Amino acid sequence: MKLYGSLTSPFVRKCRITAIETQLADRLDFVTINVLAGETSHPNPLRMVPAFETDAGEIIVDSRVICEFLASAGSHLSTPEGWSDSILLALADGMTDRAVSITLERRRPKSEQSPGWVTHCETSIRQTLPELARRLPQAFTPGAIALVCALAYLDLRHGSIDWRNGNDTLAGWYEQMSQRPSVIATEPPA
């Protein structure tokens, strides 16, 4: 098992403390990663820390989900049943965080905006889309709800990202889920 992050991140620290408390720290390799260095081999497609890799190679993101995994792992070294939606939820919420960050950055005075940060966030979103497509649920789970909202927000605020391009499976799934009455009833104004 590997935990990727920075020793100064409070979110990584939360995972490290949980690993110690669950007596899994001795089976955990810590890999230092700099999210702002432009590393393309980041294990988390969102390019955020922490990221966690099980011995089976499954990547788990979001400190809350990683800590829940560690707390339940015991002797498990692969992803336990039922974790797929939690992972989807973390990825979709992370992508939404990146998209909102772009929106807020672009609302700042032009002289204070960071084009590098916007590029970083857009890259994170583009790298996350294939991973989301790999995890599409058939049921309307919390993760599915978060994903529908994330994709709708990209349509609303960030059409230039063109998330459908090259993501046919994800686009088809979204079109199907967008027909649900709850999704239609909560559509934001243009």
Automatic annotation (TrEMBL):
Residues 1-78 form the GST N-terminal domain. InterPro entries: Glutathione-S-Trfase_C_sf (IPR036282), Glutathione_S-Trfase_N (IPR004045), Thioredoxin-like_sf (IPR036249). This is Glutathione S-transferase. It comes from Algimonas ampicilliniresistens.
